[in-house]
Design brief:
- This protein is of the alpha+beta class.
- Among the domains are: about 110 residues, conserved putative lor/sdh protein from methanococcus maripaludis s2 fold, CATH 2.40.420; about 110 residues, no CATH class.
- It has five helices and 24 strands.
- A six-stranded antiparallel beta barrel has the order 3-13-16-15-14-17. A four-stranded antiparallel β-sheet has the order 4-12-11-6, with no helix packed on it.
- The radius of gyration is 38 Å and the shape is elongated.
- The two termini are about 60 Å apart.
Length: about 425
């Protein structure tokens, strides 16, 4: 008959009872009279980083400009095309020819057109001079002591937003007028060329291009427009839902990705329409937008589609923490190791978040350590213990030491005792 070990069983029951009793007492210890420590298995460190808030949409690449070319049947009879669809043309290249019916009438028309374009060029040049001569009033500067504005030129503070916007609008308007001036000058050259041909030959005129681009369409039946030229410069076009329309505005940075050719680039939201493509009571409205490219690649072609990320907000060079290290009850807080080496419960304020990384507006500094897991083992103001990471121990380096160094360190240890 097997002998029962009563002493062992009694000892085991006592151990279980001891552990259960202590756990129960700790559970009932609302006043935290028992000195409990924090156990931290996973840490994270706050870092300084740039965060962005982005809106995802889609877009398609298209030519930045489209230029229709017309033929007036009253001026003569069409002869032939000098280009084909897909051809690349430059300013001054021939597009088509036609035979003149009434020499004097055509000569008068071309001379009148030359005079009209010259007047238009003069008006644009005068307008550019007026804009360039306009001096944006110097912005008032704020007095650091009184909070009032003064005119002290020694201040290094940035100018007010209204001043910057006015300067930007001035430069933008000059650029627009210079582009229009270049277009009118090209039209003048084309018209003068036709007039010269008429006066020299008197029979047939070659219409040249005032636009550099690609021949996108040719009307074989001579319906207007006779040809359509598109610029080689590309923009990205797309639409945005009405629910997102008020979240974006012109001038925002844009990130573009063309998956098919593994191409990435950036741009600026150049225009955003105030009117939708169409209005339907049963459909969500969509508002067109255009993005100009900062560094377009030669591999891009009209018609390519792209994934678009519009940067709607950004926080640069800010303190951040991983979202898993943050908790919320009434207020958001984190468990932070303070200068005394203990874990404290610290309230924080947050801002932007991107892919699990959160901006810390207040409550944390760069490089502070945050306890992450297990959250139910954290105690405010208590010392902590954490598992030893064997990878952090340089045991192998100890044995790689020179024998004399090991002897010196050993003797030093004995003497210190």
């Amino acid at each position: 008959m097997k002998k029962i070990n009563y002493k062992g069983r009694i000892l085991g029951l006592l151990i279980v009872a001891f552990i259960t009793t202590n756990a129960f007492l700790i559970y009932l210890d609302e006043g935290e009279q028992v000195d409990r420590k924090s156990f931290i298995n996973e840490w994270s460190q706050s870092i300084t980083y740039d965060l962005y808030e982005k809106m995802d949409t889609r877009g398609v690449f298209a030519s930045e400009e489209s230029e229709p070319v017309y033929f007036n049947e009253e001026t003569g009879s069409f002869n032939e095309f000098l280009v084909s669809e897909g051809d690349t043309v430059n300013e001054g290249d021939g597009l088509y020819t036609y035979n003149v019916q009434n020499y004097y009438q055509q000569e008068a028309r071309l001379q009148s057109e030359v005079s009209r374009i010259e007047e238009e060029i003069d008006a644009i040049e005068d307008f550019i001079d007026d804009i360039e001569s306009y001096r944006v009033p110097d912005p008032p500067e704020e007095d650091n002591d009184t909070g009032l504005f003064n005119n002290n030129d020694d201040s290094n503070d940035p100018p007010p937003q209204s001043y910057v916007e006015t300067e930007y609008l001035k430069e933008e308007k000059i650029a627009e007028q210079e582009a229009e001036l270049a277009k009118q000058e090209a039209m003048l050259e084309m018209t003068e060329d036709q007039l010269d041909q008429l006066q020299e030959d008197g029979d047939q005129i070659t219409v040249t291009s005032a636009f550099s681009g690609t021949v996108a369409d040719i009307s074989k039946d001579l319906k207007a427009p006779l040809l359509t030229l598109e610029s080689t410069n590309l923009v990205l076009e797309g639409t945005i839902h009405e629910q997102e329309r008020n979240q974006i505005e012109e001038g925002m940075p844009v990130e573009l990705n063309v998956n098919e050719i593994e191409y990435e680039t950036t741009g600026i939201l150049e225009s955003l329409d105030e009117f939708p493509e169409d209005i339907d009571v049963n459909k969500s409205s969509r508002y067109p937008f255009t993005v100009t490219l900062e560094n377009p690649g030669e591999e891009l072609l009209p018609g390519y589609h792209a994934d678009v990320k519009i940067v709607t907000n950004e926080s640069l060079d800010v303190v951040t923490a991983i979202e898993a290290a943050l908790e919320t009850e009434e207020n958001l807080f984190a468990w932070v190791m303070n200068d005394e080496g203990v874990v404290e419960r610290r309230e924080i304020e947050t801002g932007l978040d991107e892919k699990g990384l959160v901006e810390i507006v207040s409550g944390l500094e760069d490089g502070e350590w945050l306890a992450v897991e297990p959250k139910d083992e954290f105690r405010d103001g208590r010392v902590f213990f954490t598992p030893m990471n064997m990878d952090d121990l340089r045991v192998r380096q100890m044995f790689d030491m020179e024998r004399q160094s090991m002897l010196n360190y050993g003797l030093l240890g004995l003497l210190s005792r």
